[in-house]
Amino acid sequence: MWRNTAGGWGLVAILLHWLSAVAIIGLFALGWWMTGLSYFDSWYNLGPWWHRSIGVLLLLATLLRVAWRFVQPIPQAHGHRVERLAAHIGHTLLYVLLMVVLISGYMISTANGRGISVFGWFEAPAILHGLPNQASVAGNVHWYSALALMILAAGHALAAFKHHFIDRHDTLVRMLRPRVGHTKPPAK
User: Fold this and answer.
1) At 100, which CATH number?
2) At residue 100, does pLDDT exceed 90?
3) CB-based contacts of 34: which residues, under 8 Å, 6+ apart?
4) Do the domain assignments include residue 33?
5) For residues 92 and 36, what is the distance between their CA atoms, to the nearest angstrom?
6) Is 69 domain-assigned?
7) Which domain holds residue 157?
8) What is the reported pTM?
9) Which tens digit of pLDDT belongs to each residue from 37-83?
10) Cβ-contact 109, 78 below 8 angstroms
């Protein structure tokens, strides 16, 4: 139930997927909303604090997710060879864009040499700081890679719905319900 099988995702992978999805959508919405805040808005400092704190936790969860993916079997994707290749490329791009967004956000927040307080629980240290125009360059990278990530994530969701409603595959169901025991991979 906790671990992946050849035919389905385990509970750990499912929880990390959906927690990440909620965090990514929430962070994007919060980040977009924050761009319109004025200095006198009560959320002017609180919004970025939440954004940074959740962002650091998402970075840690993403590193855990990638490590988990390397030590667990990946259920076989449905569809023709071209669809499976597209799914593999799409998933890889999702991870790459997510890491670019998270690292660029970290570089914006630590450009001044101060670490990031994560809800007051711990501090993520400023490992790399003081680069020329670090906050500005990282800010541009952060914004455009976040937009690209949201577009790709929307495509990812649409592909899952296509597999579920048109192809009648259990792709979406596999990411909602963990598989118990050793199940057979889907037929090719």
Assistant:
1) 1.20.950
2) yes
3) 43, 47, 48, 51
4) yes
5) 32
6) yes
7) 11-174
8) 0.91
9) 999 999 999 999 999 999 999 999 999 999 999 999 999 888 889 99
10) no
